[in-house]
């Protein structure tokens, strides 16, 4: 079973994903996150991938779409705020995919959720 839990923490949303990255899960993540971002005007998102073992090229495409959405809305509504899509608790396999595609140069990557929250909270 796949699940996405989204929690607002100060100036960012923390999304905890568990299970297989299905089309349904990715659609739910995009929809729910877009709704929360529009409502709260928060443009920093942390994806905790601790319980995700595998990602595909489709998943990477969705992550890029989410980042573009954050960047576009940030520039439009809060130009002084940098849009950030970050990852924590990334497995060696997933990190290898991010490095191979050079996406680690676009997305911030942290060892733990606590590390990420600490660093991202200081961006303001």
Structure description:
It is built from four helices and five strands. It has 124 residues and is of the alpha/beta class. It has a single domain (3-121), classed as Transcription Regulator spoIIAA. The chain has a five-stranded mixed beta sheet with strand order 1-2-3-4-5, with helices on both faces. α2 (57-77) links the parallel β3 (44-51) and β4 (84-88). The mean pLDDT is 91.
Quick recap:
By secondary structure, this protein is an alpha/beta fold. It is built from 4 helices and 5 strands; from the N terminus they run ββαβαβαβα.
What is the topology?
Layout: E1 3-9, E2 12-18, H1 23-40, E3 44-51, H2 57-77, E4 84-88, H3 92-100, E5 108-110, H4 113-121
Parallel strand pairs: 2-3, 3-4, 4-5
Antiparallel strand pairs: 1-2
Helix pairs in contact: 1-2
List keywords for this structure.
124 residues; alpha/beta; Transcription Regulator spoIIAA; five-stranded mixed beta sheet; 4 helices; 24% strand
Count of domain modules: 1
Residue share in helix: 40-55%
- Largest sheet report: 5 strands, mixed
The gyration radius over C-alpha positions equals: 13 Å
The CATH architecture is 2-Layer Sandwich
Order of helices and strands: EEHEHEHEH
CATH topology: Transcription Regulator spoIIAA
User: Which CATH first-tier class would you pick?
Assistant: Alpha Beta
Helix and strand content put the structural class at: alpha/beta
Strand content: 15-25%
State the end-to-end distance: 36 Å
| Annotation, overall tally of beta strands | 5
CATH superfamily: STAS domain
How many separate helices?
Answer: 4
Low-confidence stretches: none
Strand order of the largest sheet: 1-2-3-4-5
Q: What's the mean pLDDT score?
A: 91
How does the overall form come out from the CA principal axes? globular
């Amino acid at each position: 079973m796949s699940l996405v839990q989204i929690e607002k923490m100060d100036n960012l949303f923390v999304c905890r994903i568990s299970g297989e990255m299905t089309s349904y899960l990715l659609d739910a993540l995009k929809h729910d996150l877009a709704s929360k971002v529009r409502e709260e005007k928060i443009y920093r998102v942390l994806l905790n991938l601790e319980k995700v073992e595998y990602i595909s090229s489709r998943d990477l495409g969705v992550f890029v779409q989410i980042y573009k959405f954050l960047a576009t809305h940030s520039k439009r509504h809060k130009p002084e705020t940098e849009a950030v899509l970050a990852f924590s608790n990334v497995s060696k396999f997933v990190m290898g995919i991010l490095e191979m595609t050079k996406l680690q140069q676009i997305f911030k990557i942290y060892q733990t959720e606590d590390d990420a929250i600490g660093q991202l909270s200081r961006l303001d």
